Amino acid sequence: MLEPDENGVYLRLDASPMRRLFAVGVFYGLGGMVAWLALGPPLSMGARLGLLVLAFAALFQGEALRRATQGAILLTTAGLVDGSGRVLAALDEIERVERGTFAFKPSHGFLVVLKHRAPRAWVPGMWWRMGRRVGIGGVTAGSQGKAMADRLAMVLARRDAG
Q1: What are the domain boundaries of the chain?
Q2: pLDDT higher for 106 or 63?
Q3: Considering the entire predicted model, what is its pTM?
Q4: Contact at 8 Å (CB) between 126 and 71?
Q5: Do residues 55 and 40 make contact, with C-beta atoms less than 8 angstroms apart?
Q6: Buried/exposed code over 3-16 (b: 16+ C-beta within 10 A; e: otherwise)
Q7: Rounded distance between C-alpha atoms, residue 115 and residue 138, angstroms
Q8: Enclosing H/E stretch for 19
Q9: Rounded mean pLDDT of 34-62?
Q10: Is residue 69 packed enough to be buried (19+ CB in 10 Å), middle (13-18) or exposed (0-12)?
Q11: Strand (E) or helix (H) holding 22
């Protein structure tokens, strides 16, 4: 039950297709509506430019979210890794997992507290890292996030026991 597969992977966390579609659609829709508003009624040049910048930012964020949620997060023998091999949190650096109601965590996800500070990083909709905290989740499936948090807690308990 606690053993990884032949590639050293315990679990895989993917974006939920419906959550991904909704989140990306919201950003694209916002960008489109703001662009339409900027190009529609008579506005001052500053207001028009400001709205176009906002529309571009929303469309850019939507595309960043679409690309980021194509990947996955893996719980491996090395720790938490994304699909490209980038280490989010090495297993020996993880202090504990927080998944309670009042934990500062992403939607349908969990929080990993590290022993030492790590560089800031953010992949929209999937994970973020600030200081000693790594938030996993966002547009991920709640059941997969809970299973990964539980499995990670078991792996950490086994590591700490000996």
Answers
A1: 16-68, 72-161
A2: 63
A3: 0.84
A4: yes
A5: no
A6: eeeeeeebbebbbb
A7: 23
A8: helix 17-39
A9: 95
A10: buried
A11: helix 17-39
